[in-house]
Design goal:
The chain has 13 helices and no strands. By secondary structure, the protein is mainly α. It has a single domain, classed as ABC transporter involved in vitamin B12 uptake, BtuC (Orthogonal Bundle), CATH 1.10.3470. The chain is globular.
Amino acid sequence: MGLIEDFDLYWELFATSFLASIVVGVVLPQVGGMMYLRRESFVGIAVPQFAAAGVALGLFLLPWFPSLQESFLDHGHPPLDYLLVFAAGAACLSMLLFSIVLKRQRGEPGALLAGAFATAAALAILFLDGSPAGNNLAETVLRGAVLLLDEHGLWLLTGVCLLTMIFIMAARRSLLAIAFDCDNAIAMRLPVAWLELAQMMLFGLAIGGGVMTVGPVLVFGLLFLPPLAASALASGLRSFQILLSICGLLSVLAAWPLSIEFDLPYGPSAVISAAALTLLCLGLGRLQRRA
C-alpha cells in the first residue's frame, strides 16, 4: 500500500501520534536550545533517563493505588497524568540537584553526569523488573508509546509543551540575559532565582511528558541534534530559535514515511532523520563560511 493512496487509513490509525510528534518536534528543540546556550547540554544527557526512571517508579508503585490499578487493568495502560507526576518530578528533581552540585563541583562534570546516567538507567530497569506491569511495559517505556497514545495523552502532552513554549517566548530576553551573563542579569534586577526555578520546573515537565509519550530516545535526539543543526546556519539568536523548531519539525515529519514504509520503530527513525539533517546543516554551514 502506498502512503498517498492510503493516507486516510494511516491518518485514522496514527493521527493522534502524528500530532503528538509535531508538538514535541516544535517544543523540545527549544528546551534543548536553551540548554545549549547555557552550555548545559550535557545535563540533558541524564535528565531524560531520570524521567524514564520516574516512569518506572510510577509503575512500581501502581499497586499501592487501587483505583489507578483498576483503571490500568480496564484500559491496558497506566493513567498518563499519574505517570506525568513521576516523570516530571524525577526530571525536575534531577535538574535541581545537578544545578546545585555542578555549581559546587570542581573538575570535569562529565564523569558525574555519566555516573548519574548509569544510575538512572539501572534504577529504571530495577523498578520495571519489580513492577507487576513492568515486564509487559518495559519495551514500551524504553522505546516510547507514541503509537499507542490516546486523545487524553495528546491533550496532556500538548498542555505541558504549550505552557513551556509560552514561558520560553515570554521570558526569552531574560532567559538569554541569564544564560550569557548571570551577574549582569542580577545587576539588572531580573528575578534570576525565580526564572531559573520556573525554567527547571517547566523544562522538567516538558522532558517528563516527552519521555512518557514518545520515549527517552526521541527526547534525547530532539534535545541535542536540532541545536547543533540550527547553530550551524543561524545568523543570530532570533534565527537560531526559529531554526530550532524547523529542524525538529522536519525531523519528526521525515520519520513517518520511513517508519511506515520500512516498519521501523518511530522514535529511532526520527533521531536518525535528525542526525542526517544535522550533518546536512553542518555541511551547509561550512560552505557558507567559506563563501
